[in-house]
Amino acid sequence: MPNTFQLSASADTNTDFSKGSIFFIGTATVILRYAGFTILTDPNFLHSGDHVHLGYGLTSERLTEPAIDIEELPPIDLCVLSHYHGDHFDQIVEEKLDKDLPIVTTNQAVGELEARNFRGGIGLDTWETAEFTKGATRLRITSMPGKHGPAMVDFALPDVMGSILDFETDNGRRPLRIYISGDTLVYEDLQQIPLRFPDVDLGLVHLGGTRIMGVMLTMDDKQGVEAIQLINPNTAIPIHYNDYDVFKSPLEDFKRAVEEAGLSKKVVYLSHGDTYNFEVPASRIGQVSA
Question: What does the alpha-carbon distance between residue 257 and residue 264 come to, in Å, rounded to a whole number?
Fold first, then answer.
């Protein structure tokens, strides 16, 4: 049985299942709005020139600015956190994010959050689900496989998860399925995702080709294309690129690889501060078009 949580629905909760949006703040940080939910991912609000700590005395410098500061966030229902690393949950977030906000993440990350007085951590093992209800919407978040590095270094890296977000109506329809890769490499376990969770509408793909001491820790251009071909979302949006000096695979390389693979019509590119607005057909919601 999934962990189940009831979120309070305000009087102005918008349960419109016909449209939603993705607002790109930078790194792997987006605000997803759909069917009354406002969801924050991997919050990172450091500015250009600031440094994050990656463990073992390693740091990385941010090269870009976030589209907004943390004080400008709208009211957030919950956060989805791939793993506990400074470029996904930084020192500004540790200080200023609501300590009671539900944060769906790995069990290991929940321990790190609790040590910093965050009380809303919800830890999931791979394939485990947390369920949230708000108004007429049910949201199921299921932990997907993720691996932050090859076997030789993975033991020294934090546990990572991808996520499937399934939005359901009160009549049992599923209008929208979103996949968030998290900071993973392409590896064998990812092959189970399209078998268990086909028909992905939107995929957020963490790129960057992060390299530390020559070892690749996130997908580069070639693996990003491979992941899109494997998961096969209707629309893919690359995030987590060009923001830190350890990101060694620039977005331009990914664009080139996408074009060479014939996937250009499937990929939407966002700059910091851009919003991707999407629509869901009435037939997916259980409505009859006029």
Answer: 9
